[in-house]
Amino acid sequence: MNVIIVTACPSGMATTFLAARRLEQAARRHGWNPVIDMHSELEAGITLSESQLDAAELVIVAASPVASAGLERFVGMQVHVASIEEALPDPEAFLAMAESRARRLESADLGSIDLTKSGLSSAVPENVGTTTQTAAKSVPSIVAVTACPTGVAHTFMAAEALSEAGRALGYPTRVETQGSVGAQDALTEQEIADADVVILACDIEVDPTRFAGKRVWRTSTSTALKKPRDTIEEAFEGAQVQPAGGEKQGSGQQQGEKRGPYKHLLTGVSFMLPMVVAGGLMIALSFIFGIKAFEEEGTLAAALMQIGGGAAFKLMIPVLAGYIAYSIADRPGITPGMIGGLLASTLDAGFLGGIIAGFLAGYTALGLSRYVKLPQSIESLKPILIIPLVASLITGLVMIYVVGTPVAGLMSALTNYLESMGSANAVLLGILLGAMMCFDLGGPVNKAAYAFGVGLLASETYAPMAAIMAAGMVPALGMGLASFIARNKFAVPEREAGKASFVLGLCFISEGAIPFAAKDPLRVIPSCMAGGAVTGALSMLVGAKLVAPHGGLFVLLIPNAINVPLLYLGAIVAGTLITGIGYAMLKKGAQQVETAAVS
Asked: How does the protein associate with the membrane (predicted)?
C-alpha cells in the first residue's frame, strides 16, 4: 500500500525526525511503500508531486500543531490526523490504528480546523479520525525514579541529567530521587497516571507496583547520567507495560536494564549501608572516651559500643542477606533471607556467608512462588505461610549443615591473612583497592571495592576500609586541585565545576570528578587511578584503620575514628597532588566541561 506520512512538531527538530524515521521503519515492516514528508530543520521538507498524491491510498499526519501539516493538500483522500506525541511510543500500533480509523477528508472539514493553534477545534467532525482528542493532547510527559546503592551522588546527578534532557527535548519531566535519606520529590499518583512513560534509572531494586499499567523502561543511573537524551528516546521506543503485582514485564530483561546477581548484591549493600554507617560512627564516638573505655560497664562509652557494635553491626549481615533475597523474590524473600543472614552471623561466616544466604533464600523463595502450584483455596497462604516456612527451612538447613562451617573457615583465614600480612602484600592490596575506587567513579568496579571494605567491618577488619575511603576521595579532590593550579587551561565553567568537585571530594563522593572524566576520560581516569593507587598503598603501609565507612575527612574530627590521623591525611594529600598535578600537566588547553546533563 502506498502511504504518505507527514510529521511536524513545534521545535521542528528531534521529535519530528524521530517520529518520521520510526514511522517509516514501521511502515516498511508492514510491507507498505511510505513517502515521508518531514517538516524539520534537520532535513528539508519535500514537495509532494501530483503522482505521489494520486498514488497514495492513505495519508497519516502526525503533527503538533496540525496547521504545520498542510492538510489542504489531502482533500478527497483517506486521512488520519493525530498529534506527533501519539505516534512515538508504539509506531506499529499507531499505523494499525491509522489504517482502521482513516476517513475521507472533505473541504468542509478544513474550516473546522484552527490553523493558529496546536490542535483542532471541538467542531471537527468524526471523519477526521481521532483529531479532536489526540491533537489537543499535550506533549508526552515523563516520570522517572533514580536510585544508586549509596544514594548520595549518582542518584541526584542522574536525576538532574534526565530533567535537563527532558526539558531540552520538550517533554515535561518529573524525577523522584530515592537517595540515602529516602524518597525526595516523590511522584504523585496523578503524575504517574498522566505520564506517557516511566524511566527507572536504578542500580538497586525499587518497588514497581505503583507503575502497574504504565510503560516502564529500566536502565542504570550511570547510563542515565552519561546519555540522558538516548535514555529518553530508548524509553519511548522500548518501554513495556508493567504488569500488576510487580512482576517484570516480558520474558526477558529490557535492553536498558542491567539485572542479575550484581544488581541483587548492590540492593543488599544499599540497605545495609545506613546500618554500617550508623554503627561505625557509634563505635567511633565511644572511642572519644578512650580506646578501651567501653569495657567499663555502665559508662556512656559502653552504651555507645553496645548500640554500634552490639546492635547495628550484628544486624548488618541479616539486612544484607534479607535485601539480596528481596531483590530476587520481592517481599517473600525477606524473611528467609534475614534468617539465613543471622545464621551466617552466628556461625561466623561473615559477609560472604550473608551473601550466600541472601542468594539461596531469594532463589528458593522465587522458585516456590513461580513453580509450586497449589489449589486455589490455599493459594493465598503461599506468601504468608508456605514460602516463608519452606524457604526459611531450606536456607537454614543449608547454612547450618553445608555452608556455615567452610565459609566460616574461609572468613577466618581471610581475616587472619589481612591482619598478619607483611608490608609488601599490604601495599599491593592498597594499590589494587585504590585503583579500583578510581577506575569508574561510582560504577561497578568502584562499588565492588567499597562493598568488600564494608563487608570486612563485620569481622572487625578495618584497614581495607581506610584505604578505600582515602582513595575514593582522591579523584574529586584532584580535579579540584588541577582546576586551581592550571587555571589557564580550564574554562570558567570548568573552574566552577572544580570548586564543587573539591567539596564533594572532602565528603568522600568520587562522582564529583565525573564531569571531567566524561569529557576527557583518557587523561582523567589514569590520573585518578595513579593518585588513588598511591593513596591506598600509603594507607595500608602506615597501618591506618577506619571504623566508619563514610564521611570523608570529616570523620577525622571524631577522636580515634582513625588510628593514625596525620599519616592518613598525608596519604590523601599525596594522592591528591599526584592526580591534580598530573592532570594539570596532561590537559591540553581549555575544553568545556558539561556541568549539568551529560548527553
From this structure: Multi-pass membrane protein
C-alpha to C-alpha distance for 329 and 371, rounded to whole angstroms = 13
Give residue-wise pLDDT tens across range 14-56: 567 777 877 888 888 888 888 888 775 444 456 778 888 888 9
Classify each residue of 87-121 as buried b or exposed e, where b means 16 or more C-beta atoms within 10 Å of its C-beta.
bbbbbeebbebbbeebbebeeebeeebbeeebbbe
443-501 pLDDT, tens digit per residue, is 778 878 888 888 787 777 888 889 999 999 999 999 999 999 988 888 777 788 888 88
- Looking only at the bridges linking them, the beta strands covering 215-219 and 240-241 are antiparallel
Which cell is 597 given?
546533563
Q: What does the DSSP assignment read for 149-204?
A: SSSSSHHHHHHHHHHHHHHHHT--EEEEEEETTEEESPPPHHHHHH-SEEEEEESS
C-alpha torsion sign, points 279, 284, 287, 288: negative
Q: What is the pLDDT of residue 593?
A: 46
Q: Fold for domain 2-105?
A: Rossmann fold (3.40.50)
**Residue 104 and residue 78 in contact, taking contact as beta carbons nearer than 8 Å:** yes
Of the candidates 65, 68, 35, the one whose C-alpha atom is nearest the C-alpha of residue 50 is 35
* Tens digits of residue pLDDT in 234-273: 888 888 887 765 444 443 344 444 457 877 887 888 788 7
Please compute, for residue 204, the number of CA atoms within 13 A of its CA located in the half-sphere on the CB side: 28
Helix (H), strand (E) at residue 404: helix 404-420
Domains 2-105 and 142-240 share a fold: yes
Query: In the structure grid, which three cell numbers stand for residue 402, read together?
Result: 553445608
Three-state SS string across 345-390, please?
HHCCCHHHHHHHHHHHHHHHHHHHHHHCCCCHHHHCCHHHHHHHHH
Q: What is the pTM of this model?
A: 0.58
Residues with catalytic annotation? 9, 148
Angle at 598 between CA 226 and CA 515, to 5 degrees: 90
Q: What does CATH list as the number for 142-240?
A: 3.40.50.2300
What angle, 0 to 180 degrees and rounded to 10, lies between the N-to-C axes of helices 521-541 and 463-485?
A: 140
Residues 524-535 have pLDDT tens digits of 999 999 999 999
Q: Are 564 and 509 spatial neighbours (Cβ–Cβ below 8 Å)?
A: no
